[in-house]
Design goal:
By secondary structure, the protein is α/β, with parallel strands linked by helices. The chain is 28% helix and 27% strand. The protein has a single domain (2-220), classed as Rossmann fold, CATH 3.40.50.620. The strands form three sheets. Strands 11-10-9-12-8-1-6-7-13 form a nine-stranded mixed sheet, with helices on both faces. The chain has a two-stranded antiparallel ribbon with strand order 2-5. It is globular.
Length: 264
């Protein structure tokens, strides 16, 4: 059995940052594994530990820099990794959900997984539709916002709890092959051990171009265009008081009276 996990290197912006053209300046960014994907990796590794003959493969779209992030998934127990990148992807202004789904679907079709796990959303752009779009491309069943999972590999069924609006949870069975988007809190992601980090350096990490996976540069074409990037101006200032509640309550009351929120 094979579990494919989609992982993404996300950019975290410093409190003080600069804008360069249509993006945040590189010097203002730090990179890490997407939080939701970390839970998806942990879920896949736990499945592999509980079930015999399970291979966990991660797939990411990103430049060479992203290999450090991908290696962390390998250090936590994934067996091998695939990174997709080439000049066409590097030159694209950005990759929309459809492009990402097409690329990952092409990898999935070659890998033929029984289960695909993806984080519910990405912490940098807050997109949360890639997993569902991927399922549509592959023709797989799917379940989104999964916060509990029991896998019956022999029967080819995943029993999942889904988090719905208003705190409601749904229990349903999904036939494999399937795509599941994983919510935070489903498990407790492990730290990469020193031994795991060393082993990760020896695990396979393949780099593939669009041509390698049967796609061409047209896959990056998008109807969406980024036209500007700017930091919005602050419309009002925040007032912060130091001191205990007795000292600050009067100052707060006076401010509210000045603003007309309460009568004097």
């Amino acid at each position: 059995m094979k579990v494919l996990v989609t992982v993404k290197e996300v950019a975290e912006v410093d409190d003080e940052f600069e804008i360069s053209g249509l993006d945040i300046a590189e010097g203002s960014l730090e990179y890490d594994l997407n939080e939701w994907d970390d839970y998806a990796v942990e879920e896949a590794v736990q499945i592999s530990e509980a079930t015999e003959d399970i291979e966990v493969v991660t797939v990411t779209i990103g430049p060479e820099r992203a290999e450090e992030t991908v290696r962390m998934a390998l250090a936590k127990g994934a067996d091998r990794a695939i990174r997709v990148w080439d000049d066409a992807l590097a030159e694209a202004q950005f990759l929309d959900i459809g492009t990402k789904a097409d690329i990952i679907a092409a990898v999935a079709e070659a890998e033929d997984p029984d289960l695909v796990l993806s984080g519910v959303q990405a912490s940098d752009d807050s997109n949360g539709a890639t997993g569902v779009a991927l399922a549509k491309r592959l023709g797989f069943e799917w379940a989104a916002v999964v916060n509990d999972l029991e896998l019956d590999a022999g029967a080819g069924i995943a029993s999942v709890h889904r988090e719905l609006e208003g705190g409601i949870e749904e229990l349903t069975d999904v036939d494999l092959p399937a795509v599941l988007t994983i919510q935070t809190g489903i498990n407790e992601p492990r730290y990469a051990s020193l031994r795991g980090i060393r082993q990760a350096q020896r695990k396979p990490l393949e780099t593939e171009s669009l041509d390698d996976i049967g796609l061409d540069a047209s896959v990056v074409e998008s109807p969406i265009e980024r036209t500007s990037m700017y930091e919005p101006e602050t419309e009002s200032d925040a007032v912060v008081w130091d001191g205990n509640a007795d000292e600050t309550a009067g100052e707060l009351a006076e401010l509210l009276r000045e603003k007309g929120v309460v009568e004097g």
